[in-house]
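Intended use. Records like the one below are meant for learning the mapping from a protein sequence to its folded structure. Do not use them to infer anything beyond what is encoded.
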Amino acid sequence: MNLDFLCALAEIYEWEIQSHVAFQTVTGRALYFGIVRAHLNGHQIDRTSLKQLVSSDIATERGVRLRMREFEKLGLVFIELNTIDKRTKRVLPTEQFVALMNAHASQAMLIFQRRFFIIQNTTPTSSEQS
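Structure written out for the chain above:
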């Protein structure tokens, strides 16, 4: 069995923990990846519930809301009232969040390139086209 892939994932995880406080809790890491997934897939985060961002198996809604407030204080997201449905709020990734996401992707690529032969896709994804 090839364990290089697991070693690469472990190395990425170490970088995450050392690089930003957002990654240092299970809830923070899950919220980060939920926002990344919604952002990169073109989902409007104002129409994505907290339950869709973070599984209830990982964290309670209260825990996610607290972590979301921490992300806002860290400058990673901007939270505003949803103009469509006043009962909900919009979560907008900031430039700082996008910069963290790009640094994360770059670091992961460097780690994978050290261990594997990488063929990069030259077709832009929907998020790269916008």
